[in-house]
Amino acid sequence: MPTCTWDHIHLRSADPEGTAQWFERMLGAQVIRSMQQGQPRIDLKLGGANIFIAPVKPGDGVNSPPVTPYQGLDHFGLSVSGIDAIAAELKAKGVEFSKPPHVPRPGIKICFLRGPQGISIELLDRDAKYV
Q: Strands, E, within 66-105: which ranges?
């Protein structure tokens, strides 16, 4: 059985700045602004958790938010060590992957699997020398 820990929550927003300000104002989140691959990025730290805010633009293929109540999240991420072995074990158990293990940038290997009701779960194996 793999050992998992929380890594992040990923939000999609048509107004990332407004979303960040709301979390800062309402819940005391720390707003972290940076650049990633030449694009501005807004992240939050809240209660020890990482919250990543991804911008949504018209025509980018992202569905409208559902009307509450609804099931599911965009995705949540879990830190693991040894992602290839874990992915093989999960695949052997019949888990469906929406994206197999791959390296989107140096220092991290990720995969996405489908949980119950189509919930998207990201597994992340981070190389400590890139953190």
A: 76-79, 97-105
Rounded to whole angstroms, how far apart are CA atoms 111 and 122? 6
Find the Cα–Cα–Cα–Cα dihedral 62, 50, 127, 93, rounded to 10°.
-60
Fold designation for 75-131 = 2,3-Dihydroxybiphenyl 1,2-Dioxygenase; domain 1 (3.10.180)
Instruction: Check residue 108 and give its pLDDT.
Output: 95
- Using pLDDT thresholds of 50, 70 and 90, give the confidence band for residue 64: confident
- 118 in helix, strand or coil? helix
Task: Report the CATH number of the 8-57 domain.
Answer: 3.10.180.10
> Smallest Cα–Cα separation from 2: which of 114, 90, 110?
90
- pLDDT exceeds 80 at position 118: no
